[in-house]
Design brief:
Radius of gyration: 37 Å
Largest sheet: 9 strands, mixed
Number of helices: 8
Distance between the termini: 90 Å
Helix content: 25-40%
Order of helices and strands: EHEEHEEEHEEEEEHHHHH
Strand content: 15-25%
Length: 326
C-alpha cells in the first residue's frame, strides 16, 4: 500500500477514575520536570483498541496489541489529531493488554483490548477538559500507529498481493485484514464522532515497500494490487526506462535490418528487396545479426575490401620500383 491509509476508529475513555496510587504517581513523575503530588494530577483510563474486526474489516492481532502496549507509553493526547504543541492535553504513563472474560470477537476468538492510564495536570486551563471527561462529553478517542503489513485472513498473504477482497466471504470464511508488525505509535486524540463498535483507532498503515518483481508478479497473475505513492512512482520510473530501452531497441533493429537488406542486394541480387523486407520483419534481432554476419562474409569474397585493394596497389608499386634499387 503506498501512501498512508488513515482510518478513524474510536475507542472509549474508561468511566472509572480511581484514586492515584503511589506507583502511578511515580510513573507520572518520570515525565515531569518537578515532582507532582496526587492532588495536582487527574488520572483516567482509556480503551485504545482491541482484536475485534472493525468497520473497515481489519483488526489487530493479539501480538500487535502487545507491541502497541510498549509503544504507547509516554505518548501525548491531543485534539482531532492536530499535531500542535498547544493541543497537547494528556499523557499516557501506563498501558496493558487485558482479556475480557466471557467476551468473544466476531471470529469467535477470546476478546483482548489495549487499555491505558493517562494523566492531566489539574490547572485552571484544564478544568473544562476534566469536567468534560467526567461528564462523558469527551469520551471517544482514537490513536495513530503504523503497521508493517496487513495479512489476508483467508490465505495469509499480504492483502496487497492476494486476490481476496475485504468484507467478502470465501468458502464460508470472511476476508479481513490482520494488522501485523506494528513498528510505531504516533499519538492518541480526543475526537467527536465514534467510528468503531467498541474500541478502535486511526490506523496509519505504511506497508513495507514492494519490490518491482513483486509488483510485476501481481500484475502478470492478474491479482488485485494496491500501490502506495512511492510504489507508483517506482512503477512509472520503471515504465519510463522500458520506453527508453524500447526506443533504443527499435533504432538498433532498424539499423540492423537496413544493413541486412543492403548486403542481401549484393550477395543475393535475385531476391527482391520487398521479399527480403517481409522475411526480415519476422526475424528476431539475434537472427538478423546472424544473417548480417553471414552476408558480410559472402560480400567480402565478392567485393574485396578497400584495405586489400590498397595492399595490392602497394605491392605492385614495390615491384615496379625494383629496377631502381641500388
Amino acid at each position: 500500500m503506498t501512501g498512508e491509509i488513515k482510518k478513524e476508529i474510536n475507542a472509549v475513555t474508561d468511566s472509572t477514575t480511581a484514586e492515584v496510587t503511589d506507583k502511578e504517581l511515580e510513573l507520572i513523575n518520570a515525565y515531569s520536570r518537578r515532582k507532582l503530588t496526587k492532588d495536582e494530577v487527574y488520572v483516567f483510563g482509556v480503551v485504545l483498541c482491541d482484536n475485534d474486526i472493525d468497520r473497515d474489516n481489519e483488526r489487530f492481532t493479539v501480538e500487535s496489541l502487545f507491541e502497541l502496549e510498549k509503544l504507547f507509553v509516554g505518548k501525548t493526547g491531543i485534539f482531532d489529531h492536530s499535531p500542535t504543541a498547544k493541543n497537547q492535553t494528556a499523557r499516557i504513563f501506563a498501558c496493558s493488554v487485558e482479556s475480557v472474560d466471557g467476551r468473544k470477537t466476531a471470529t469467535g476468538d477470546d476478546y483482548f483490548r489495549l487499555t491505558a492510564r493517562a494523566y492531566i495536570p489539574k490547572t485552571k486551563g484544564n478544568d473544562e477538559i476534566i469536567q468534560a471527561i467526567d461528564s462523558g462529553i469527551l469520551k471517544e478517542v482514537s490513536i495513530g500507529c503504523a503497521a508493517g503489513e496487513v495479512k489476508c485472513s483467508v490465505c495469509g498473504e499480504s492483502l496487497n498481493h492476494c486476490s481476496h477482497i475485504k468484507g467478502e466471504t470465501y468458502g464460508g470464511r470472511k476476508c479481513y485484514g490482520e494488522l501485523c508488525g506494528i513498528y510505531d505509535a504516533y499519538e492518541w486524540s480526543f475526537v467527536a464522532v465514534p467510528a468503531q463498535r467498541s474500541a478502535g483507532v486511526i490506523k496509519s498503515f505504511k506497508g513495507k515497500e514492494m519490490k518491482m518483481e513483486e509488483i510485476l508478479k501481481s500484475i502478470y497473475t492478474e491479482k488485485d494490487i494496491n500501490l502506495s505513492g512511492e510504489e507508483c512512482k517506482k512503477l512509472c520510473s520503471y515504465i519510463d526506462e522500458l520506453k527508453k530501452s524500447a526506443a533504443d531497441g527499435v533504432y538498433y533493429r532498424d539499423s540492423l535490418t537496413s544493413e541486412v537488406l543492403r548486403l542481401s542486394a549484393v550477395v543475393q541480387p535475385d531476391i527482391s528487396r520487398e521479399t527480403m523486407e517481409s522475411v526480415a520483419k519476422g526475424m528476431s534481432v539475434v537472427q538478423l545479426k546472424e544473417f548480417k554476419n553471414a552476408f558480410e562474409k559472402r560480400a567480402d569474397s565478392i567485393l574485396p575490401s578497400v584495405p586489400q585493394l590498397y595492399k595490392q596497389k602497394n605491392d605492385i608499386t614495390a615491384e615496379s620500383n625494383g629496377n631502381f634499387k641500388i
